[in-house]
Amino acid sequence: MLLRNLVDFEDLTRAEWEALYESCSRIIERPSDFIDTCRGKVACNLFYEPSTRTNFSFQAAMLRLGGSVFGFADPNSSSVAKGETLKDTVKMVSGYSDVIVIRSPREGAAKAAALYSNVPVINAGDGGHMHPTQTMTDLTTITRLRGSVDGLSIGLCGDLKNGRTVHSLIKALAKFEGIKFYLISPRELSVPEYIRIFMKENRQWNVEVTNLDAVMPQLDVLYMTRIQRERFTDPLEYERNRGVYILTKRKLERAKERLLVMHPLPRVDEIAPDVDDDPRAVYFQQAQFGMYIRMALLADLANQEKKAPAPVPMGGHRRCGNPSCITKDEWYLPPLTKRIGEVDYCAYCDKAVGERAEQ
Ligand code: NCD
Question: Mind listing the domains of the chain with CATH numbers?
Protein backbone atom coordinates (compact mmCIF):
# COMPACT_ATOMS: atom_id res chain seq x y z
CA MET A 1 0.00 0.00 0.00
CA LEU A 2 1.23 3.52 -0.77
CA LEU A 3 -0.35 5.04 2.31
CA ARG A 4 2.18 6.61 4.68
CA ASN A 5 0.04 8.65 7.07
CA LEU A 6 -3.68 8.31 7.71
CA VAL A 7 -4.81 11.86 8.42
CA ASP A 8 -7.99 11.91 6.37
CA PHE A 9 -9.82 9.12 4.53
CA GLU A 10 -8.94 11.09 1.38
CA ASP A 11 -5.39 9.74 1.83
CA LEU A 12 -6.69 6.38 0.57
CA THR A 13 -7.91 5.39 -2.87
CA ARG A 14 -10.91 3.09 -3.04
CA ALA A 15 -8.62 0.27 -4.22
CA GLU A 16 -6.37 0.83 -1.18
CA TRP A 17 -9.40 0.77 1.08
CA GLU A 18 -10.56 -2.50 -0.50
CA ALA A 19 -7.11 -4.05 -0.01
CA LEU A 20 -7.18 -3.01 3.64
CA TYR A 21 -10.68 -4.43 4.05
CA GLU A 22 -9.52 -7.73 2.50
CA SER A 23 -6.64 -7.87 4.91
CA CYS A 24 -9.07 -7.15 7.79
CA SER A 25 -11.30 -10.01 6.61
CA ARG A 26 -8.31 -12.38 6.61
CA ILE A 27 -7.49 -11.29 10.16
CA ILE A 28 -11.09 -11.90 11.29
CA GLU A 29 -11.13 -15.37 9.69
CA ARG A 30 -7.71 -16.53 10.96
CA PRO A 31 -6.37 -14.23 13.70
CA SER A 32 -3.71 -16.77 14.67
CA ASP A 33 -1.95 -16.21 11.33
CA PHE A 34 -1.16 -12.63 12.39
CA ILE A 35 0.23 -12.99 15.90
CA ASP A 36 3.76 -12.12 14.76
CA THR A 37 2.92 -9.53 12.10
CA CYS A 38 4.16 -6.65 14.27
CA ARG A 39 6.61 -8.60 16.44
CA GLY A 40 9.26 -6.15 17.69
CA LYS A 41 7.28 -3.11 16.55
CA VAL A 42 6.18 -0.38 18.94
CA ALA A 43 3.23 1.99 18.68
CA CYS A 44 3.06 5.29 20.52
CA ASN A 45 -0.45 6.44 21.46
CA LEU A 46 -0.59 10.20 22.09
CA PHE A 47 -4.09 10.83 23.45
CA TYR A 48 -4.60 14.50 24.27
CA GLU A 49 -8.34 13.93 24.69
CA PRO A 50 -10.47 11.28 26.47
CA SER A 51 -11.03 7.97 24.70
CA THR A 52 -12.09 4.45 25.54
CA ARG A 53 -12.73 2.51 22.33
CA THR A 54 -10.23 4.16 20.04
CA ASN A 55 -7.34 4.01 22.50
CA PHE A 56 -8.15 0.49 23.71
CA SER A 57 -8.83 -0.89 20.26
CA PHE A 58 -5.53 0.47 18.92
CA GLN A 59 -3.74 -1.04 21.92
CA ALA A 60 -5.53 -4.37 21.61
CA ALA A 61 -4.84 -4.38 17.86
CA MET A 62 -1.09 -3.87 18.33
CA LEU A 63 -0.88 -6.46 21.11
CA ARG A 64 -2.75 -9.04 19.01
CA LEU A 65 -0.24 -8.48 16.21
CA GLY A 66 2.61 -9.24 18.61
CA GLY A 67 3.74 -5.60 18.99
CA SER A 68 3.87 -3.28 21.99
CA VAL A 69 2.36 0.07 22.88
CA PHE A 70 3.36 3.02 25.05
CA GLY A 71 1.96 6.53 25.34
CA PHE A 72 -0.36 8.67 27.40
CA ALA A 73 -4.11 8.91 27.78
CA ASP A 74 -3.85 12.15 29.75
CA PRO A 75 -1.47 14.82 28.45
CA ASN A 76 -1.18 16.27 31.96
CA SER A 77 0.97 13.28 32.87
CA SER A 78 3.53 14.22 30.18
CA SER A 79 5.75 17.21 29.34
CA VAL A 80 2.82 18.70 27.44
CA ALA A 81 1.84 20.03 30.87
CA LYS A 82 5.21 21.85 30.94
CA GLY A 83 4.43 23.54 27.63
CA GLU A 84 6.16 21.21 25.18
CA THR A 85 5.13 21.79 21.58
CA LEU A 86 3.47 19.11 19.47
CA LYS A 87 6.44 19.27 17.11
CA ASP A 88 8.96 18.43 19.85
CA THR A 89 6.82 15.64 21.30
CA VAL A 90 6.37 14.08 17.87
CA LYS A 91 10.03 14.40 16.82
CA MET A 92 11.05 12.72 20.02
CA VAL A 93 8.54 9.84 20.12
CA SER A 94 9.08 9.09 16.45
CA GLY A 95 12.58 8.11 17.53
CA TYR A 96 11.12 5.66 20.05
CA SER A 97 8.37 4.06 17.98
CA ASP A 98 7.34 2.65 14.60
CA VAL A 99 3.94 4.31 14.33
CA ILE A 100 2.21 7.20 16.12
CA VAL A 101 -1.51 7.25 16.89
CA ILE A 102 -2.69 10.71 17.87
CA ARG A 103 -5.96 12.12 19.21
CA SER A 104 -6.30 15.82 19.97
CA PRO A 105 -9.02 18.38 20.68
CA ARG A 106 -7.31 20.57 18.03
CA GLU A 107 -8.47 20.34 14.42
CA GLY A 108 -5.61 19.47 12.10
CA ALA A 109 -3.36 18.08 14.87
CA ALA A 110 -2.60 14.82 13.04
CA LYS A 111 -1.71 16.67 9.86
CA ALA A 112 0.64 18.88 11.85
CA ALA A 113 2.19 15.86 13.60
CA ALA A 114 2.83 14.12 10.28
CA LEU A 115 4.97 17.07 9.14
CA TYR A 116 7.58 16.27 11.78
CA SER A 117 7.43 12.50 12.13
CA ASN A 118 9.91 9.86 10.95
CA VAL A 119 7.22 7.21 11.28
CA PRO A 120 3.63 6.96 10.00
CA VAL A 121 1.02 9.02 11.85
CA ILE A 122 -2.58 7.89 12.31
CA ASN A 123 -5.33 10.38 13.09
CA ALA A 124 -7.42 8.97 15.96
CA GLY A 125 -9.68 12.05 16.00
CA ASP A 126 -8.78 15.76 15.68
CA GLY A 127 -11.31 17.97 17.45
CA GLY A 128 -14.64 18.25 15.66
CA HIS A 129 -12.91 17.66 12.32
CA MET A 130 -12.09 14.07 11.22
CA HIS A 131 -11.86 10.54 12.57
CA PRO A 132 -10.80 8.30 9.67
CA THR A 133 -10.25 5.08 11.62
CA GLN A 134 -13.79 5.32 12.98
CA THR A 135 -14.86 5.60 9.34
CA MET A 136 -12.90 2.44 8.55
CA THR A 137 -14.73 0.80 11.44
CA ASP A 138 -18.07 1.98 10.04
CA LEU A 139 -17.32 0.82 6.49
CA THR A 140 -16.11 -2.54 7.74
CA THR A 141 -19.32 -2.97 9.74
CA ILE A 142 -21.57 -2.10 6.82
CA THR A 143 -19.63 -4.26 4.36
CA ARG A 144 -19.49 -7.28 6.67
CA LEU A 145 -23.17 -7.08 7.61
CA ARG A 146 -24.74 -5.88 4.34
CA GLY A 147 -22.29 -7.23 1.76
CA SER A 148 -21.58 -3.82 0.26
CA VAL A 149 -21.82 -0.09 0.88
CA ASP A 150 -22.83 1.09 -2.61
CA GLY A 151 -26.43 2.09 -3.14
CA LEU A 152 -27.42 2.44 0.52
CA SER A 153 -29.60 5.12 2.09
CA ILE A 154 -27.80 6.32 5.17
CA GLY A 155 -29.34 8.46 7.92
CA LEU A 156 -26.82 10.48 9.93
CA CYS A 157 -28.54 11.69 13.06
CA GLY A 158 -27.60 14.03 15.91
CA ASP A 159 -24.78 16.56 16.18
CA LEU A 160 -23.68 16.79 12.55
CA LYS A 161 -21.92 20.08 13.16
CA ASN A 162 -19.40 18.87 15.74
CA GLY A 163 -19.40 15.12 15.13
CA ARG A 164 -16.09 14.25 13.48
CA THR A 165 -17.18 10.68 12.77
CA VAL A 166 -19.94 12.05 10.55
CA HIS A 167 -17.59 14.37 8.65
CA SER A 168 -15.14 11.56 7.97
CA LEU A 169 -17.87 9.16 6.90
CA ILE A 170 -19.41 11.64 4.45
CA LYS A 171 -16.01 12.28 2.86
CA ALA A 172 -15.22 8.58 2.60
CA LEU A 173 -18.57 7.76 1.04
CA ALA A 174 -17.72 9.97 -1.94
CA LYS A 175 -15.65 6.96 -3.06
CA PHE A 176 -18.82 4.81 -3.25
CA GLU A 177 -21.71 4.78 -5.72
CA GLY A 178 -25.37 5.64 -5.29
CA ILE A 179 -25.30 6.68 -1.61
CA LYS A 180 -28.25 8.73 -0.36
CA PHE A 181 -27.69 10.79 2.78
CA TYR A 182 -30.49 11.78 5.12
CA LEU A 183 -28.88 14.43 7.34
CA ILE A 184 -31.02 14.51 10.48
CA SER A 185 -30.18 17.26 12.96
CA PRO A 186 -31.49 20.39 14.62
CA ARG A 187 -30.86 23.32 12.26
CA GLU A 188 -28.15 24.79 14.45
CA LEU A 189 -26.27 21.46 14.49
CA SER A 190 -26.25 20.82 10.75
CA VAL A 191 -23.06 19.89 8.86
CA PRO A 192 -20.33 22.55 8.62
CA GLU A 193 -19.84 24.61 5.49
CA TYR A 194 -16.75 22.73 4.29
CA ILE A 195 -18.67 19.44 4.37
CA ARG A 196 -21.58 21.02 2.52
CA ILE A 197 -19.16 22.24 -0.14
CA PHE A 198 -17.53 18.80 -0.28
CA MET A 199 -20.90 17.11 -0.83
CA LYS A 200 -21.75 19.58 -3.58
CA GLU A 201 -18.39 19.21 -5.35
CA ASN A 202 -18.75 15.42 -5.21
CA ARG A 203 -22.42 15.45 -6.23
CA GLN A 204 -23.46 13.46 -3.17
CA TRP A 205 -27.24 13.07 -2.93
CA ASN A 206 -28.45 14.50 0.37
CA VAL A 207 -31.44 15.94 2.13
CA GLU A 208 -31.40 17.82 5.43
CA VAL A 209 -34.28 17.15 7.83
CA THR A 210 -35.02 17.73 11.49
CA ASN A 211 -37.44 14.83 12.03
CA LEU A 212 -36.02 11.33 12.44
CA ASP A 213 -39.38 9.51 12.39
CA ALA A 214 -40.33 10.96 9.02
CA VAL A 215 -37.36 9.40 7.21
CA MET A 216 -37.05 6.19 9.24
CA PRO A 217 -38.77 3.91 6.65
CA GLN A 218 -36.29 5.00 3.92
CA LEU A 219 -33.13 4.05 5.75
CA ASP A 220 -30.75 1.10 5.27
CA VAL A 221 -28.37 2.46 7.91
CA LEU A 222 -29.18 4.74 10.82
CA TYR A 223 -25.99 6.26 12.23
CA MET A 224 -26.79 7.84 15.58
CA THR A 225 -24.38 10.30 17.22
CA ARG A 226 -24.05 11.99 20.58
CA ILE A 227 -24.50 15.74 21.03
CA GLN A 228 -20.81 16.68 21.44
CA ARG A 229 -21.00 18.62 24.71
CA GLU A 230 -17.25 19.33 24.89
CA ARG A 231 -17.27 21.17 21.55
CA PHE A 232 -19.88 23.79 22.51
CA THR A 233 -18.59 27.26 23.34
CA ASP A 234 -22.12 28.26 24.41
CA PRO A 235 -23.50 25.99 27.18
CA LEU A 236 -27.05 27.17 26.40
CA GLU A 237 -26.73 25.86 22.86
CA TYR A 238 -25.88 22.46 24.34
CA GLU A 239 -28.82 22.61 26.76
CA ARG A 240 -31.20 23.45 23.90
CA ASN A 241 -30.10 20.40 21.94
CA ARG A 242 -29.43 17.68 24.48
CA GLY A 243 -31.84 14.77 24.31
CA VAL A 244 -33.22 16.02 21.01
CA TYR A 245 -33.14 12.57 19.37
CA ILE A 246 -33.80 9.44 21.36
CA LEU A 247 -34.14 6.22 19.41
CA THR A 248 -36.47 3.72 21.08
CA LYS A 249 -37.67 0.24 20.20
CA ARG A 250 -41.06 1.70 19.36
CA LYS A 251 -39.59 4.13 16.82
CA LEU A 252 -37.90 1.22 15.07
CA GLU A 253 -41.30 -0.34 14.28
CA ARG A 254 -41.42 1.74 11.10
CA ALA A 255 -37.88 0.87 10.04
CA LYS A 256 -36.74 -1.68 7.46
CA GLU A 257 -36.18 -5.19 8.69
CA ARG A 258 -32.55 -5.17 7.55
CA LEU A 259 -31.74 -1.71 8.92
CA LEU A 260 -28.37 -1.36 10.65
CA VAL A 261 -28.48 0.86 13.74
CA MET A 262 -24.94 2.11 14.21
CA HIS A 263 -23.26 4.45 16.69
CA PRO A 264 -19.54 5.24 17.11
CA LEU A 265 -20.15 5.24 20.88
CA PRO A 266 -20.08 6.44 23.63
CA ARG A 267 -23.83 6.97 23.74
CA VAL A 268 -25.40 9.29 26.24
CA ASP A 269 -29.18 9.03 25.86
CA GLU A 270 -29.69 9.01 22.09
CA ILE A 271 -30.31 5.26 21.93
CA ALA A 272 -32.57 3.84 24.63
CA PRO A 273 -31.21 0.62 26.19
CA ASP A 274 -34.30 -1.28 25.00
CA VAL A 275 -32.90 -1.04 21.45
CA ASP A 276 -29.80 -3.06 22.39
CA ASP A 277 -31.56 -6.42 22.03
CA ASP A 278 -33.01 -5.64 18.63
CA PRO A 279 -31.05 -7.62 16.00
CA ARG A 280 -30.72 -4.40 14.00
CA ALA A 281 -28.62 -2.79 16.77
CA VAL A 282 -25.03 -3.46 15.70
CA TYR A 283 -23.05 -0.84 17.63
CA PHE A 284 -21.20 -3.26 19.90
CA GLN A 285 -20.26 -5.44 16.92
CA GLN A 286 -19.18 -2.22 15.21
CA ALA A 287 -16.77 -1.47 18.07
CA GLN A 288 -15.23 -4.93 17.68
CA PHE A 289 -14.80 -4.55 13.93
CA GLY A 290 -12.90 -1.37 14.85
CA MET A 291 -10.18 -3.45 16.46
CA TYR A 292 -9.83 -5.72 13.42
CA ILE A 293 -9.59 -2.93 10.87
CA ARG A 294 -7.02 -1.17 13.09
CA MET A 295 -5.04 -4.43 13.09
CA ALA A 296 -5.03 -4.34 9.29
CA LEU A 297 -3.92 -0.71 9.30
CA LEU A 298 -1.16 -1.19 11.88
CA ALA A 299 0.10 -4.33 10.12
CA ASP A 300 0.78 -2.11 7.15
CA LEU A 301 1.97 1.15 8.68
CA ALA A 302 4.04 -0.12 11.62
CA ASN A 303 6.12 -2.24 9.25
CA GLN A 304 7.22 0.67 7.07
CA GLU A 305 10.80 2.03 7.05
CA LYS A 306 11.58 5.12 9.11
CA LYS A 307 11.86 8.11 6.79
CA ALA A 308 12.90 11.67 7.63
CA PRO A 309 10.13 14.12 6.68
CA ALA A 310 10.74 16.88 4.14
CA PRO A 311 12.05 20.13 5.71
CA VAL A 312 9.19 22.23 7.04
CA PRO A 313 9.27 26.02 6.59
CA MET A 314 8.58 28.13 9.67
CA GLY A 315 5.11 29.60 9.98
CA GLY A 316 3.82 32.78 11.51
CA HIS A 317 2.24 34.46 8.47
CA ARG A 318 -1.41 34.16 7.50
CA ARG A 319 -3.42 32.52 10.25
CA CYS A 320 -6.58 30.47 10.22
CA GLY A 321 -9.53 32.15 12.00
CA ASN A 322 -10.83 28.91 13.52
CA PRO A 323 -10.16 29.05 17.29
CA SER A 324 -10.06 25.22 17.42
CA CYS A 325 -7.42 24.94 14.68
CA ILE A 326 -4.05 23.44 15.67
CA THR A 327 -2.32 26.56 14.30
CA LYS A 328 -3.74 28.50 17.29
CA ASP A 329 -1.54 26.63 19.80
CA GLU A 330 1.34 25.64 17.58
CA TRP A 331 2.52 29.04 16.31
CA TYR A 332 5.51 27.70 14.29
CA LEU A 333 3.37 25.67 11.86
CA PRO A 334 3.57 26.74 8.20
CA PRO A 335 0.31 28.38 7.06
CA LEU A 336 -0.81 25.70 4.60
CA THR A 337 -3.88 26.44 2.53
CA LYS A 338 -5.76 24.79 -0.33
CA ARG A 339 -7.90 26.58 -2.90
CA ILE A 340 -11.36 25.35 -3.90
CA GLY A 341 -13.04 27.61 -6.45
CA GLU A 342 -12.32 31.18 -5.32
CA VAL A 343 -11.83 30.39 -1.65
CA ASP A 344 -8.73 29.48 0.35
CA TYR A 345 -9.21 26.82 3.02
CA CYS A 346 -6.88 26.03 5.90
CA ALA A 347 -5.18 22.74 5.01
CA TYR A 348 -5.14 21.70 8.68
CA CYS A 349 -8.77 22.20 9.74
CA ASP A 350 -10.55 22.80 6.37
CA LYS A 351 -12.21 26.05 7.51
CA ALA A 352 -12.21 28.91 5.00
CA VAL A 353 -9.26 31.15 5.88
CA GLY A 354 -10.60 34.07 7.86
CA GLU A 355 -13.82 32.21 8.71
CA ARG A 356 -14.61 31.65 12.38
CA ALA A 357 -15.60 28.16 13.57
CA GLU A 358 -18.89 29.33 15.09
CA GLN A 359 -20.66 30.27 11.86
C1 NCD B 1 -16.30 9.16 18.79
C2 NCD B 1 -15.28 10.26 18.83
O3 NCD B 1 -14.35 10.27 19.67
O4 NCD B 1 -15.38 11.12 17.96
N5 NCD B 1 -15.96 8.10 19.62
C6 NCD B 1 -15.15 7.11 19.13
O7 NCD B 1 -14.01 7.34 18.79
N8 NCD B 1 -15.68 5.90 18.96
C9 NCD B 1 -17.69 9.62 18.97
C10 NCD B 1 -18.02 10.51 20.14
O11 NCD B 1 -17.18 10.82 20.98
O12 NCD B 1 -19.17 10.91 20.20
Answer: 9-127+290-301 (3.40.50.1370), 132-281 (3.40.50.1370), 321-359 (no CATH)
